C-alpha cells in the first residue's frame, strides 16, 4: 500500500476583496477594537485582546501571567495605555479581564448564540505582524465539559494571536483564541486554532467586579501548554513533554494537554503511551474529535485496524466535515480489503477539500491496488496539477 504522510490544513490569511461587503464593514469597524498587550520591560513578549468596554480589556490569562507591569496599544495606533491590574480571572478557561483606565474605543458585541459546525469564523492578525490581515476558518466541532468548553476551528494561528477575538459573519464575538495546533508533524494532524467557548466569556463578564487587583500572577497550566507547543514546533520534543507535564501537574483536567503530549509521543515513537494520553483526553472531553482521530492514527501504526476504524468513526460522528478522518478511514478500510468503501471515504474527503493533493494521492493508491489503474493515474495527475511534489514519482512508478 502506498504510504501517505498526513499534513496540516493551512488556512491562509485572506484579503478584504474576498469578504462580503457587510462583513467587510464590520471588520473595518472593529480593526481598532483589537489591542496588543505588551510587557513593559520586554516589547518582544506580547499577546492580543479586545476592548470589552471603556477601560476594560478581555484576553487570555496566560498572556498576562508573569507580568508585573504592562500596557496595551490599540491596533493601528501608537499610544500606550497602562494596565492598572485585573478585574477578573478564570484559571480553568484561561480568561482575564484587565483594567486599562485610559483606554477607550469601539467594543465588540457578543454573539447571541454559539456557532454551528461548518460556520465561517474570523480573527485578526496581531498588529506586531499586520493589523489589517483577517484570518478565516470554519468551526470544526464544539464541546462543553467539566466547566470548560472549546470551539475548534481551522483558523491558523501565529505568534501573538492568543487572546484575539474570534467573530462570526455578523462581526460578533463567539470566543477567544487560546491555543494553536502543532505546525510540524508526520502522520498527525492538529492544525487550526482552539477557541474558548462563548459561554465562559459571558460568565466572566457577568461575574467581574470593579475592584482592581495587582498583576504578578504565577504561570499556570495554559502557559506551560503553549510553551510545550512552541518547543514541539522547534523539534525539541523532550522539552515539549517536560513543559506539558508541568501543565498537567497544575491542572490535570485539561484535555488538550494530554492530547498534545500524545502527539509529541507519537513523534518519539512512544505509541502505547500516546494512546493512553489520547484516551485520557477523550475521557475528559468525550467530544474531542481530534483526539479520536489521532488515537485512530496511533492504532493504525500498531496495525489495529478495526480499533482504528472505530476511532475514525467517532471523529466523523462529532465532525462530519473532518476530511482527514475520512481519508484516514479510507486507508484503514483498504488495509482491511474493503476497497469499495475505502474509495467512497476518499472521495468524501476530496468533496470536502477538493484542492488537497494528498487526498488524490491516497485515493490513487487505493485505486491502483484495487486494479483501477486508469482511475489511479487520473488521481496522481490531479495531485500533480495541484502541486504535490511526490505525484510525479507515483506517475512514473505506476502509470508508465
Description:
By secondary structure, this protein is of the alpha+beta class. Helix content is 42%, strand content 20%. The chain has helices at residues 21-30, 61-64, 198-207, 221-233, 237-250, 255-267, 271-284, 289-301, 305-318, 323-335, 339-352, 357-369, 373-385, 391-398, and strands at 13-14, 34-39, 42-53, 56-59, 70-74, 81-82, 85-90, 95-99, 120-124, 134-145, 148-153, 165-167, 173-180, 193-197. It has a domain at 21-99: Trypsin-like serine proteases (Thrombin, subunit H), CATH 2.40.10. It starts with 12 loop residues before the first strand and ends with a helix. The strands form 2 sheets. Strands 6-5-2-3-4-8-7 form a 7-stranded antiparallel sheet. It has a 6-stranded antiparallel barrel with strand order 9-10-11-14-13-12. Mean pLDDT is 87; it is low at 1-18 and 184-190. α5 runs antiparallel to α6 (255-267).
Features:
single chain; about 400 residues; alpha+beta; Thrombin, subunit H; six-stranded antiparallel barrel; about 20% strand; elongated; disordered N terminus
Amino acid at each position: 500500500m502506498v504510504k501517505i504522510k498526513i499534513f496540516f490544513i493551512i488556512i491562509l490569511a485572506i484579503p478584504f476583496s474576498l469578504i462580503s461587503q457587510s462583513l467587510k464593514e464590520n471588520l473595518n469597524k472593529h480593526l481598532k477594537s483589537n489591542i496588543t498587550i505588551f510587557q513593559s520591560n520586554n516589547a518582544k513578549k506580547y499577546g492580543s485582546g479586545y476592548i470589552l468596554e471603556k477601560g476594560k480589556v478581555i484576553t487570555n490569562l496566560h498572556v498576562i501571567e508573569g507580568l508585573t507591569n504592562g500596557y496595551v496599544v490599540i491596533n493601528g495606533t501608537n499610544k500606550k495605555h497602562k494596565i492598572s491590574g485585573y478585574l477578573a480571572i478564570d484559571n480553568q478557561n484561561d480568561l482575564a479581564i484587565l483594567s486599562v483606565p485610559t483606554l477607550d474605543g469601539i467594543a465588540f458585541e457578543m454573539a447571541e448564540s454559539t456557532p454551528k459546525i461548518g460556520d465561517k469564523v474570523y480573527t485578526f492578525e496581531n498588529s506586531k505582524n499586520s493589523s489589517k490581515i483577517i484570518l478565516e476558518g470554519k468551526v470544526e466541532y464544539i464541546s462543553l465539559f467539566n466547566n470548560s468548553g472549546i470551539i475548534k476551528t481551522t483558523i491558523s494561528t501565529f505568534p501573538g494571536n492568543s487572546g484575539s477575538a474570534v467573530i462570526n459573519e455578523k462581526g460578533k464575538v463567539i470566543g477567544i483564541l487560546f491555543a494553536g495546533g502543532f505546525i510540524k508533524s508526520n502522520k498527525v494532524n492538529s492544525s487550526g486554532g482552539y477557541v474558548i467557548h462563548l459561554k465562559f466569556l459571558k460568565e466572566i463578564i457577568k461575574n467581574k467586579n470593579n475592584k482592581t487587583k495587582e498583576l504578578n500572577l504565577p504561570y499556570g497550566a495554559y502557559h506551560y501548554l503553549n510553551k510545550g507547543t512552541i518547543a514541539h514546533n522547534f523539534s525539541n520534543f523532550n522539552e515539549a513533554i517536560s513543559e506539558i507535564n508541568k501543565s498537567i501537574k497544575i491542572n490535570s483536567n485539561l484535555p488538550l494537554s494530554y492530547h498534545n503530549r500524545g502527539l509529541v509521543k507519537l513523534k518519539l515513537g512512544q505509541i502505547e503511551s500516546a494512546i493512553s494520553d489520547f484516551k485520557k483526553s477523550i475521557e475528559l472531553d468525550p467530544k474531542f474529535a481530534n483526539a479520536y482521530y489521532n488515537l485512530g492514527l496511533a492504532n493504525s501504526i500498531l496495525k489495529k485496524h478495526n480499533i482504528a476504524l472505530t476511532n475514525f468513526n467517532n471523529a466523523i460522528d462529532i465532525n462530519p466535515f473532518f476530511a482527514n478522518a475520512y481519508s484516514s478511514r479510507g486507508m484503514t478500510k483498504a488495509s482491511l480489503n474493503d476497497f469499495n468503501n475505502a474509495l467512497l471515504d476518499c472521495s468524501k474527503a476530496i468533496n470536502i477539500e477538493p484542492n488537497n493533493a494528498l487526498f488524490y494521492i491516497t485515493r490513487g493508491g487505493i485505486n491502483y491496488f484495487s486494479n483501477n489503474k486508469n482511475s489511479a493515474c487520473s488521481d496522481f495527475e490531479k495531485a500533480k496539477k495541484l502541486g504535490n511534489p511526490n505525484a510525479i514519482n507515483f506517475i512514473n512508478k505506476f502509470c508508465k
